[in-house]
Amino acid sequence: MSGTGDTFNRLKKAVNDHADKAEGVVGKAAAAAKKATGGSHDDKIDKGAGAATDYLRKRAQENKKSKGE
Hints:
69 residues, 3 helices, mainly alpha
């Protein structure tokens, strides 16, 4: 099970380091989820995608500040 934790931590670091690029993936994932559920959970998917996008935007801004951009 530790392999799962290590993988999650590497994924988390990659997302944090490249939040600006990961933001685009959220929209694609949300669209795929909506298609898979046939629209029956669109409100929940939109809420989750919105929260993820907000988080990634904040991380991207923090990354720019830390890099001096």
